[in-house]
Predict the 3D structure of the following.
Amino acid sequence: MTKTWLITGCSGGFGRHLAQQAAARGDNVVATARNPETLRDLADRYPETLRVAALDVTNSEAIHAAVALTAEVFGRLDVLVNNAGHGFMGAIEEATPEEYRPLFDVNLFGLIETTRAALQLMRRTGGGRVVNLSSGAGIVGIGGHGYYNATKFAVEGLSEALAQEVAPMGIRVLIVEPGPFRTEFLGRSIAVAKRQIDDYSATGGAARSYREGNDGRQPGDPLKAVAVILKAIDSENPPLHLPLGPRAHFLAESKLVSFRKDIDAWRTLSIDTDYD
Ligand code: NAP
């Protein structure tokens, strides 16, 4: 059955691949980007089924306009993909509020506002999928990536709660947790703390050199990732968590092991805290 999609952050990377693949198989797509010119070629290739909207996810009016356009042109919404996001590297003490707040504005608050606006339409048209781009960084915190971790951990918690709230309406939530994939993410989509403190050279400093050594060399193929995401969206029983790539799987497995270790080591003491 033909689906109708609304996707944020389609100028490149996962968002663009998803918009392209969905349109190529005959689905209806509202592809959005801060600069809609970046989507002109897709709009020309799929004039009947792909619409472009200007959308900066920090702009609430633009979010509502994109959802209204989806309703007006296609009459329904089956798949919302909250993909827009960017990264930040630096130790917690190194970064200033001016540097780290924009990360939350896009990765978390933008996702929340887009979801709230889209759910009205999804509920009206009887179910669907909310696909939230988290990250391996939403599973395990790593020094030098703390602010990015914080935004993606928040996406995870929010998505788990949302999944329970919307399940009775036939809406399923899918949290996508990619490891390193070769998009623009480590290039133009990542900011770095200006202030560098020597004491954090092994954490904040290591994160900065990770970027330099890995941009354009990430092992993950975004087209393969998108193929798996499409399968999960189409599945009658999609997973709540979908780690993508060997690194994300390693992080998920190591989280399970370290969590287990902490719980077991302190079980007797930490469980015995209710009133006698
Ligand atoms: P990308 O190629 O850099 O794409 C990021 C997209 O987000 C761009 O289209 C960018 O648009 C858009 N964006 C940034 N701020 C925005 C805003 N305020 N409003 C609307 N769009 C905005 O990187 P990507 O890898 O495809 O990233 C997509 C998602 O995957 C992100 O949420 C990221 O955290 C997640 N992810 C990526 C990786 C990876 O290794 N690639 C791993 C884990 C998770 P502009 O062109 O306007 O900047």
User: Anything to note?
Assistant: The pocket of NAP is lined by residues 8-9, 11-15, 33-35, 55-58, 83-86, 106, 110, 133, 135, 178, 180-181, 183-185, 189, 218 (CB under 6 Å). The two ends are 57 Å apart (CA to CA).
